[in-house]
Design a protein that fits this description.
heterodimer; A: 114 residues; mainly beta; 7-stranded mixed β-sheet; 4-stranded antiparallel β-sheet; B: 113 residues; 0% helix; globular
């Protein structure tokens, strides 16, 4: 079965540092997403991306966050200046349809901000 | 506001017991509903989904869920659980034509051998 790959599985960083979380979506998918889950809380939508631009973003996705599809295969989430409250599990997902019917999630990157 | 509620935070059952996990949603319009499972150390996997048609949907690993529109519910059931069902279960919803999933807080299921 095809899968979404995320690297690294665990990222530790100092507060104020920039981090880039990487994802390789399934190859023929067109819709890409980032979700996050703070420990003990809900999985929350961050951003959706289609046709090389953001199609929707949540309140969480402020100016510190950005996404990019730099080379047609990778899909990255950048946090410019990390805060303690950015510590969470970040999930990448991709789909070939817009309605969530065939959404595949990666195994997540655990981000720890110290 | 759109929301999904899962009232059971942690459920502990013995093997072969029957399972029902509650999920209620608050959404306007046509809603699509999902149950995801996350086994320890693994990614979220889709168990089943409801888009339209028969309100009783069957998923993988013997799970099923029933969409009851009048109760705004989409409870997950399994007649006889196994130790391997130990995992976190998430209910999620989205409006028809919308791509953004709203998740519940999850229910941790522990099966005792």
């Amino acid at each position: 079965e095809p899968e979404v790959t995320q690297t690294p599985s665990h990222q530790v960083t100092q507060m104020g540092q920039e981090v880039i979380l990487r994802c390789v979506p399934i190859s023929n998918h067109l819709y890409f997403y980032w979700y996050r889950q703070i420990l003990g809380q809900k999985v929350e939508f961050l951003v959706s991306f289609y046709n090389n631009e953001i199609s929707e973003k949540s309140e969480i996705f402020d100016d510190q966050f950005s996404v990019e599809r730099p080379d047609g295969s990778n899909f990255t989430l950048k946090i410019r200046s990390t805060k303690l409250e950015d510590s969470a599990m970040y999930f990448c997902a991709s789909s070939d349809t817009r309605n969530g019917e065939k959404l595949f999630f990666g195994s997540g990157t655990q981000l720890s901000v110290l | 506001a759109q929301s999904v509620s899962q009232h059971n935070h942690h459920v502990i059952l013995s093997e072969a017991a029957s399972l029902e996990l509650g999920c209620n949603y608050s959404y306007g319009g046509t809603v699509n509903l999902f149950w995801y499972v996350q086994y320890p150390g693994q990614h979220l996997q889709l168990l089943l989904k409801y888009f339209s048609g028969d309100p009783l949907v069957k998923g993988i690993k013997g799970f099923e869920a029933e969409f009851i529109k009048s109760k705004f519910s989409f409870n997950l059931r399994k007649p006889s659980v196994q130790w391997s069902d130990t995992a976190e279960y998430f209910c999620a919803a989205t409006n028809f034509g919308n791509e953004k999933l709203t998740f519940g807080t999850g229910t941790r299921l522990t099966i005792i051998p």
